[in-house]
Design goal:
heterodimer; A: mainly beta; six-stranded mixed β-sheet; 0% helix; B: 116 residues; mainly beta; 11 strands
């Protein structure tokens, strides 16, 4: 099945700093979603982005499907951005479930 | 608009006991998913429903796990009997449906199960 690798596994930022999270995948995809899991365990959908670029406030994401990677940018980080960021992909080879990476754990300190 | 609702939020049971989790999806969402999340890992799909039909249950351990979505709205996931290794967070998600697995998914808060 499709493999998903996220980097870095852990990241510590000072409040106000910018960061880039990366998601590499091993096959063509027709589905790619970024999620944020807050410290209380709630998963929030950030972007549905199998290709192209999207922006939502301080967050933006870019997927380069031909090169099999996606990037999540967080600008002017806040303590509320802390948590785990997951990339999840669906292989274009059939109607397959989302496969989640292991996540990037982000800690933003004041 | 209410999000995905799950109950209970926490459950502690002894091994070999049965346990059930309940999920009510976002109103109007035809697709419902049950995921399992182990500590330090991403969620893994157990089963997907399109309305009342289970269309992807290949990852559901059918010897002890069962699920139902009788009227195509809320759903129950059951484990009988529970084993120590079943300790995890059980997540429910829903999506509008009609696009298979490519829909945007919305997750509930999860049920944290501890098996002693």
């Amino acid at each position: 099945g499709i493999q998903v690798e996220q980097s870095p596994p852990d990241l510590i930022l000072q409040e106000g700093a910018n960061s880039t999270l990366r998601c590499n995948f091993s096959d063509s995809v027709n589905n790619l979603q970024w999620f944020h899991q807050n410290p209380w365990g709630q998963l929030i959908n950030l972007f549905y982005i199998p290709s192209g670029t999207k922006q939502n406030g301080r967050l933006s994401a870019t997927t380069v499907a031909t090169e099999r990677y996606s990037l999540l940018y967080i600008s002017s980080s806040q303590t509320t951005d802390s948590g785990v960021y997951f990339c999840a992909v669906g292989s274009a080879s059939g109607n397959t479930p989302l496969v989640f990476g292991k996540g990037t754990r982000l800690s933003v300190i004041a | 608009e209410a999000g995905v609702v799950q109950s209970p939020r926490y459950k502690i049971i002894e091994k070999k006991q049965p346990v059930a989790f309940w999920c009510n999806p976002i109103s109007g969402h035809n697709t419902l998913y049950w995921y399992l999340q182990n500590l330090g890992q991403g969620p893994e799909l157990l089963i997907r429903y399109e309305n009342e039909e289970a269309v992807d249950d290949s990852q559901l351990p059918k010897d002890r796990f069962s699920a139902e979505r009788l009227k195509g709205v809320d759903s129950t996931l059951k484990i009988q009997p529970a084993e120590l290794g079943d300790s995890a967070v059980y997540l429910c998600a829903s999506s509008e449906g009609g696009a298979g697995h490519t829909d945007t998914q919305y997750f509930g808060p999860g049920t944290r199960l501890t098996v002693l």
